Amino acid sequence: MESLKPLFEPLEKLLEWGGAKKNITFIAVSAIALVLSFLVPNLPVDPAWIAILLCGVPIVIEAFIALVTEFDIKADLLVSIALIASLAIGQFFAAGEVAVIMQLGGLLEELTVARAQRGIQKLVELTPRTARVLLDDGSEKEIAADDVALNQVVRVLPGETVPVDGVVVSGSTSIDESAVTGEPMPVDKQAGCEVSSGTTNQFGTIDVRATRVGADSSIQRMARLVQSADAGKAKIVRLADRWATWIVVGALASAAGVFLVTGEILRAVTVLVVFCPCSLVLATPTAIVAAIGNATKHGFLVKEGDALERLAKVKRIAFDKTGTITKGEPRVAAVAPCAACELSRDELFALVASAELRSEHPLGKAIVRDAKTAGVAATEPSAFEMKPGLGVIAQVNGSHVAVGNEALMTQLDLNPESWASCGLDALRGSGKTLTFVAVDSKAAGVVALADTVRQESRHTVRSLQEAGASPVLLTGDNQAAAKTVAGMVGIEEVVSSCKPENKMRFIESCEKNGTKCAMVGDGINDAPALKRAYVGVAVGGVGSDIAIETADIAIVNGGISELPHLLMLAQHMMRVIKANLTFSMLLNFTAIILAFIAVLDPVSGALVHNCGSVFVIVNSAFLLKWARR
User: Fold this and answer.
1) pTM to 2 decimals?
2) Active-site hit among 46, 230, 306, 320
3) Are 198 and 162 in contact (CB under 8 A)?
């Protein structure tokens, strides 16, 4: 039957021509025709034929093509049978009414989808078309943004959209990242800062060296996620299509039974009309696309409706620590001079910051940054030596300063126990990273650094617990650091020293025990667990390539504060779907009984039955603005 597909391609293209505007026009014209048919019944040609031709014929053709080319029995087949049966007994108005309301339901679904995806689609529209490239002679040349090569420098003027992901090499400005991250406040950028494509340069001119271009840029990756945000992939979408074979058989059997019992063809046709599964067809996809639209407003990119369906069943949520529960940015937590040292805390801090001033190590940079924030002045060292894997040695204001780990101190013939008076045991017990300081070959003090817990983490964990999900912390850090962070945010279950394969095995063990477990992470080391989890949620939206590619859902703004909303939204979506399905089936069975006892004729049956479809769509649309209390 596949060989027959090419024969019907021109016809399928003709049916798709015009899109929503055509459908709106056809439905409006058909509705007017039905009103004339009802008010002026004695015209030479029944105006209901206009509705049958404009709205009914496309349904019949699509059902026929699916049946012939793929032997795919869809719900449209039963609608087609009801239309043809109504025409056969001269019930033109009923046939036209069924066709119009079925097409109206399809149009409402299409408009709901469009509205639901409108927020995400804006990301695609943000994709820059051109870029201003700096040439070797200092001149500028405007080229297509897709043609920018890796490491090329582009100039971005005030008011322009950044065309590539890259690093600022000169200039300073403020960047509006709200379209990509959702953060309303502009972010200051200067040389060395990273910028993302799709963001807007507000004030100064900056030169940016491209680190990701073309399809690898942030905004293009977002665009690919938009293409996959398709509610049609959900397992429970089109429930009526999954059961279509049984629905068709049941409808035909019921109609035949009614005819045999009553001997009235009109009642049999009425049963076919009310048996049409219009509301069942629409019950699930409208709810899913509306929920996806709601999630988009709260900073989530949902790849497929199936992800929300699965999320609603999750009872356990595993969190990565660094970059997810914490910011992934080391901060100075304590500066502790030794008891025998004559330096004050600020004096010790100033010496360490001065020694680290030329360091490229992340911990060294963190010390310099936090010293500046604290108002501690650092001076340029007169001599500097980097000791890879150990620390730094510098000459600061005539003093010989060594800053590094225990191995560096041992190499300098200093006993690490000399720092015992700095409170080493307490600092180690809290899981902090320790940097030892020696001044003029004597123990001077310790600088303790720790990752910063996200401000929203504790509230997020508590809200998830209230929603029925049990949080777990999975981290590669040592047990002391892991338990400290877990205690700060209220997570009781901790698995420390986890490698990527350990995280994946934990997810697998949950599944074996019958527990649906979601994984929330931000880095490449989380990718296996994100892929294996019942639902994978990537934190960091524009910055974690591998995590985003493997996860089911991406958080655009990089924070986890809206996770409880997403979980509760998924749970509420399933309640709406079940309510839609229950209402639809009850309405259908009630209408069948009323048709059997001749309370409903084909016209009134079509009206009652299809009003259910409109109710289902309206009920689903409320999900767009749903908010947790």
Assistant:
1) 0.69
2) 320
3) yes
